[in-house]
Amino acid sequence: MIRLAGALLALMVQLSPGLAAPGRVVSLNLCADQLVLALADPGQIAALSPFATDRASSAAAEVAKAYPRTRGSAEEALALGADLVFLGPLDRMATSRLLDARGVQVERMAFPSSLDEAKTIIRRTARLLGHPERGEALAARLDAALQVTTGRVTALPYERRGYASGPRSMLGDAMERAGLAHAAPETGFGGFVSLERVVALRPDVLVLNDPPARVADQGSALLVHPALARLYPSERRISVPAVLTVCPGPGLVEAVELLAAGRAAAPR
């Protein structure tokens, strides 16, 4: 009887339609694009979001060029025969309702604020795509990038107009896990830090995303201020493109590797 029950359970699992790998995946979300490209079989990908090939927005823009893109509508997803559609956490409510009404599985991809949350999203997405082992492998790559050496190095992520991602953001968490202590922990999820405050804090390094080579507008003027140029020459700056720290996926692995390498090379 036990063997029979086990056999019946195994059969039910095999026949469960909810566990079947989707054959027509459509992503209408920029972060989902990147995970689908990293975790799905090429033949599973029916289409990606309108911004999938935008190099300023996506860390997987070049890879995405090989796939069709939609304008972001439910009608397009239905015409493509989608059986799994990825959306953002709060966008396209009408699209979601229409797809639900047609029996299409809809997955809303959460926005992570830590590496642990990012790994949870990676693993869940891989399971939905029918490739859980790929999710585990990508999560393991993220862990492997966090090879911290001894010694304290303080860092401040600094962006246009003096905005600093806080320690409770995904960039802040990646910094901490890579061995970079946030110089302004009071910023929480993020906040503005004045130039005077930076000079007073005197962190060991600045973490910059896409630092400007010259003053292009008022937003970038602060980043090329003479005081920062004097205190933070190139060896005290870690450049991490913004597109790498927005979404979970291979781009985030690259961001952590850049942080870890910058931390190892930082002057003490």
TrEMBL record:
The answer to keyword Signal applying to this record is yes
Has UniProt tagged this entry with the keyword Signal? yes
- Domain Fe/B12 periplasmic-binding: from-to ranges: 25-211
For this UniProt record, give its keywords in alphabetical order, as a comma-separated list: Signal
Q: Which domain of life is it from?
A: Bacteria
Signal sequence region? 1-20
Supply the InterPro entries for this chain. Answer: ABC_Transporter_SBP (IPR050902), ABC_transptr_periplasmic_BD (IPR002491)
Q: Name one GO biological process term.
A: cellular response to iron ion
Its name, as the record gives it, is ABC transporter substrate-binding protein
What broad taxonomic lineage does this protein's source fall under? Bacteria, Pseudomonadati, Pseudomonadota, Alphaproteobacteria, Hyphomicrobiales
